[in-house]
Sarcosine dehydrogenase-2C mitochondrial
Amino acid sequence: MAENVVIVPSSAEKGMTLKNPTYKKQRNNENNEDPEDHQSPLRSIFCLKKIVDMKRVEETEDCFILDFNPFNSIDIAKLSAVNDGDEADLSVVAEKGQVACRDYPHSRHLCLQFPFDTTPHDRHCHLCYCYVCDSAAPCEFWVLHCDASEHVETWKSQRQVRIPKGQPSRF
């Protein structure tokens, strides 16, 4: 006696491309009974990755696994829509942790708020310092020193003259 086995995707997998789809088996018996009466009690379990999809999945699935903590709230105050106009398709909406060249004192040429290549060098944030003098920007000679960077030998030598070798940087 040959059995016909029909493989049917679960409701969550219909229309989705999955790496390892899970199927439930329905057996059609020879007595032409309703196939629903002979279904396996086992079925696929959907794993939800993003909270934004929860409402849609709740409507279609009876049981699913959350791959995140639904009780972790999103702090709206920490969200920011940063769009410099450089990338039309990319917006940063959240960050986690500290960024050294933004949250700590840094040489002017490393400033993230005023990128060295795209903004006037005399502009500086409240954490910038002069590469040559090793003092908070603007220094006494800022009109000249604002162009300083560690990539130019002239500035490196001027820094070494101003800051003796054994003395650590103040920043």
